[in-house]
Every structure is written in structure tokens, then in C-alpha cells.
Amino acid sequence: MLPPDTSPTEYAEAIIRSIPGSTTFLTVGSTAESREKRVHGGYTNNYVATLHHADGSEKVRVNLHEEWGAFTAAVDGEYWYTGNSRGDQQWVNMYDDQGLLIATMRPEAPSNWGAGWMDHAASLAAMTEPFSDTHVVYAEDVFWGRMIRYVTQIKLGDLSRSSGSFTW
Q: Is 54 left (phi over 0), alpha (psi -120 to 50) or beta?
């Protein structure tokens, strides 16, 4: 558990995930601003995902979509994921350690486009296959009583970073 945030942000974590092989950890929670904005009856909306340094200080924070219903998070040691569902829809977002959105995964054929809810904090599990560039995420679908498997392959060199400026 993180110590109370006495800054104007007033961050309060709801879910904490350790990251295998790392001193950093991931939380999903809310801020004073996000709690103030609660819409749709205040049902877990306006949450933020925060990657922390070992001492608990913030490394990067990502605002999650304001209309999402249920939230969960998972890590595979290289990337971190947020899962969410609302109605018959389900999304899994994949981020790097700088908070950059790498991929958004959604069900398609053969799972029939819709998916049920991820209804609790342990609704998502992630792993990297050993000696591989394959990242696997399993997401709960309580409506249909199944797990949906999402697979992403990121080969060395697929993602690159650069510095400087560019024009659109």
C-alpha cells in the first residue's frame, strides 16, 4: 500500500500489481480531479494507471477513458496492460514503461465481436512466452463464461525511439 498522497493530486490506488524482475510497480486508482469528474453514477470512471519507481514516486501516469466501466491491470515484465469492459464490449491496452500505448486488443472472429465483462481486479493475466517475442494476455469474459486470449508479437527492432522534432 502506498502512503497517503498529501499533494493536491490526492492519488489513491485501488489495484496494485508488482512487475516480475523489476523494482517498479503498477497501480490503478483515482485522483482528486478524477473523483470530482465522476460521471455515469460514479461507477469506477475516470481512473488513472500509474507506473511507480521502487520508492513509490510516480514514473508515468496514464488517464484511462472516462466512460469505461470495470478496470483491471496486469504486467508481463516488459509491458503493462489495462483491461476494461462496458456493456458487451471489452478492451485490453498494452503500454511500455514510458506510458506509450503500444496496442489495443479487442475480440474479433472467431470469438464473435462482443465480449462480456471483466468484473473484478483479477480479471486479466499477462505473460511473455519464454525465449520468444510473443506476449499473451488472458481476459475474463463472465457473461459467456470464458477467457479470451490476446496475442501480440513484438520483434526486436519493431519499436524504436528517437529524439528531436518532426512536422506533421
A: alpha
Domain boundaries, the chain: 12-153
- Residue 76 region by backbone torsions, left for phi larger than 0, else alpha for psi between -120 and 50, else beta: alpha
Burial zone of 20 (CB within 10 Å; 0-12 exposed, 13-18 middle, 19+ buried):
exposed
The 10 Å CB-count burial string (b at 16+, else e) for 88-114 is ebbbbbbbbeeeeebeebebeeeeeee
Bridge partners for 149 per DSSP? 138
CB-based contacts of 108, cutoff 8 Å, min separation 6: none
Evaluate if pTM is beyond 0.85. Answer: no
Q: Is the separation of the CB atoms in 74 and 126 below 8 Å? A: yes
- Tens-place pLDDT, residues 98-143: 888 888 888 876 555 567 777 777 788 888 888 888 999 998 888 8
